[in-house]
Amino acid sequence: xxxxxLALITGASGGLGYEFARLxxxxxxxxVVVARTGAPMEELAQWAEARHGVAVTxxxxxxxxxxxxxxxxxELAERDLHPDVLINNAGFTQLAPFAESDELVxxxxxxxxxxxxxxxxxxxxxxxxxxxxxxxxNLASNAAFQPGPFMACYYASKAYVLNFSIALNEELHGSGxxxxxxxxxxxxxxxQARAGIEDARLVKGRRLPSAAEVAEWGWAQAERGKxxxxxxxxxxxxxxxxxxxxxxxxxxxxxxxxxRV
Length: 261
Fold this sequence. Notes:
Blueprint: E1 6-10, H1 15-26, E2 30-35, H2 38-52, E3 56-60, H3 68-78, E4 85-88, H4 103-131, E5 134-139, H5 152-171, E6 177-183, H6 191-195, H7 211-223, E7 228-230, H8 233-241, H9 247-257
Parallel strand pairs: 1-2, 1-4, 2-3, 4-5, 5-6, 6-7
Helix pairs in contact: 1-2, 1-7, 3-4, 4-5
């Protein structure tokens, strides 16, 4: 049995999840990577095993299915794999007026962003507590700090992730297990293309930070045991300013930001 720490990363076929996996492999972690698409993760596994000598378990799974988090946890238990790190990175958005949105996509979004994240955390956290160490990293967003018309469910889901993570971190204080919610703004990944928001005012024409840059920043915050962290001075100011705006005003500002241009 290896003595290397084990990191479980969801949404690891691209973007931030992929970069978190690369970063932790470079730092000597064995990996369990989970996402819908297996091929990119298989390539990642070959690279990590050849370059860094770590073991990589690839679990192709659609995390939008009910109970998917529990299924991942059960498969880990069958393989006698016990994560020291959990990075709940999987998530997506939907840009549309709520009354016109695709209901199946909306429900899938809520399952991935909230239900699977919560279930997987619930299954993994007790083992970390029993062993006296562990890091849980949950991907929130700058969207967590305000209501978001035209992406109402996404913004609400990230507010859940933020508050859930901060609360759980406080519950686990002194256990050796930390929980960190990361709140980056838009990142240069396939996230925008999947949601069809490349022409939204929020991202169009903007230089976005790379996924590798944000992953490195995010892991540094987790290692410090911070309950939450906001990426970049711009989004830190934004998160601070939202405390002082009426919610209705914040919603109007977000509606304008989410307009297509």
